[in-house]
User: Which sequence fits this backbone?
């Protein structure tokens, strides 16, 4: 069963704590992405990676960090520097960045208590 | 601001009717467009895409129309079913740039 998995589905954290969201894909896609979705809003790009060991900031990278040590994995860390982290986080992948169709995971809902 | 938008935030239809969801884009250089469906609490699901060298593309019960003259994109769903209830996003892409998403239209289907 191929696809993109994200874990956990729901995540709670206290203010001041860092938290890492997992994203794994077995589609053999080179490019991976992290988006943030707020109620009534479109998707906003946080970070993307076109290839292993390389990643680029998106529109709202402040307070977030990523790594891409393996092709299959693109974890996102929400740091304490992110002032309003409560949101729905979506991971996506595409064959390459220019092969444009992105396929999404099921999302992680992060709530800061 | 958004370069991709939708004319209506919500659309209500009766089961069996045809639905038309509209999207306007502002960048005439955009050459690739995608429609996604997002059910509550889930990730967006790819529905259909179209490149700028086409005007129309059909899938199973869905048709996407592209009018480059007025920079308009629409998604037509035939014989709408309750399972079609979701938020529908259009997205556009220009070569070398990131995919840009609109805010979405919520489709509600009543029996």
Assistant:
């Amino acid at each position: 069963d191929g696809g993109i998995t994200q874990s956990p589905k729901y995540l709670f954290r206290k203010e001041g704590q860092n938290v890492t969201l997992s994203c794994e894909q077995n589609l053999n896609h080179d490019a991976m992405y992290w988006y943030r979705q707020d109620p009534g809003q479109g998707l906003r790009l946080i970070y993307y990676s076109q290839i292993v060991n390389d990643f680029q900031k998106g529109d709202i990278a402040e307070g977030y960090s990523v790594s891409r040590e393996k092709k299959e994995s693109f974890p996102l860390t929400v740091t304490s520097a992110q002032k309003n982290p409560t949101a729905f986080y979506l991971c996506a992948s595409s064959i390459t960045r220019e092969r444009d169709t992105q396929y999404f995971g099921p999302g992680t809902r992060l709530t800061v208590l | 601001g958004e370069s991709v938008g939708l004319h209506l935030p919500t659309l209500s239809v009766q089961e069996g009717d045809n639905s038309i969801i509209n999207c306007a884009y502002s960048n005439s250089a955009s050459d690739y467009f995608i429609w996604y469906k997002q059910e509550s609490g889930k990730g967006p699901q790819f529905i259909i895409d179209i490149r700028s060298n086409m005007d129309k593309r059909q899938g199973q019960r869905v048709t996407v129309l592209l009018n480059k003259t007025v920079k308009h994109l629409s998604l037509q769903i035939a014989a709408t079913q309750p399972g079609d209830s979701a938020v529908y996003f259009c997205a556009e892409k220009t070569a070398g740039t990131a995919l840009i998403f609109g805010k979405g239209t919520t489709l509600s289907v009543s029996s």
Q: What stands out?
A: The mean pLDDT of chain A is 93.
